[in-house]
Amino acid sequence: MQTIEIPRADWAAWLSGFTASHKDWLVSVDVLDPEFGAQPQVSNLPLLGVSAERVNYVHTVAVAVGRSPGEHVSHLVRGVTRIAVERTEKGAEAALQIVSADGTTTLLRFRSPALPETVDGMPFPKAT
User: Fold this and answer.
1) Residue 63 CB burial class (10 angstroms; 0-12, 13-18, ≥19)
2) pLDDT tens across 6-29, in order?
């Protein structure tokens, strides 16, 4: 597995492209807390979107999963300091890591990692 950090200046645009390429893919969301360990939040629900914004000088990432926009679960990560993508040896994105200032990591994992172009033919901008 290869981990590639996304530059902070690219977070919003990169996550928009990530959402476009992976919308409706089944994901699980776990919170890895330094004090309490792994805490599952969501298991095998379709990805609706991941977005980044800056609110009152604090970087925030929102993850939305569910069957529809009206029937969904949102998970907010405040104080984000790092975003990275985990890729398989073949380049398929397997997980997204969102790390907050307190050391907590939110891990969004795909049920079945695959190259986006093998699923729907849409190219996806690669992280550099």
Assistant:
1) buried
2) 999 999 999 999 999 999 999 999
Q: Which amino acid is at 86?
A: E
d(CA 88, CA 39): 24
Q: Where do the structural domains in the chain lie, given as residue ranges?
A: 2-113
Structure tokens at 62: 């929102």
C-alpha closest to that of 74 among 106, 122, 37: 106
The class of domain 2-113 in CATH terms is mainly beta
Half-sphere exposure in the Cβ direction for 70 (13 Å, CA): 0
Tokens representing 19 are 């959402």
Rounded to an integer, what distance in angstroms lies between the CA atom of residue 115 and that of residue 124?
9
This prediction has a pTM of 0.82
What whole-number distance in Å separates Cα of residue 17 and Cα of residue 13? 6
